[in-house]
Amino acid sequence: xxxxxxxxVAGDILPAYSHPRPLNANVxxxxxxxxxxxxxxxxxxxxxxxxxxxxxxxxxxxxxxxPKAVDLALEKIxxxxxxxxxxxxxxxxxxxxxxxxxxxxxxxxx
Length: 110
Description:
By secondary structure, this protein is of the alpha+beta class. It has helices spanning 27-33, 66-76, 95-101; strands spanning 7-9, 12-14, 38-40, 44-49, 53-58, 82-86. The strands form two sheets. A four-stranded mixed beta sheet has the order 3-4-5-6.
C-alpha cells in the first residue's frame, strides 16, 4: 500500500494502490490571494507577493521540463527578500523532485 510504488511495462504505467486524498490547498484561494500569478510550463507558477516575498508553486513532477521551469521562475524572483515554495497541490515526487530539491542544497550529490 505504498503510494510511491508503480509498475511500468513497455512505457505504460499499470494501475497500483491508491486511496482518495483531499487537496491540501484551496485553488480558488490562490487565485484570490495571488492575482498576479504567472505560469511557466505546465506545472510551475510564480509571483511576487506582499513585502517582496517570492511565491513559487509546483503542481506536479510529471513534466520533464519542470526543473527548467523552476529555474526560470527562480530567476524571476531572485531579488525577493524571501521564498515560499508551495508543493501542496503536488501528488508526490520522483527524480524530478530530487533535481529541483538539489538546487536548495549547497553540496552537489550524484
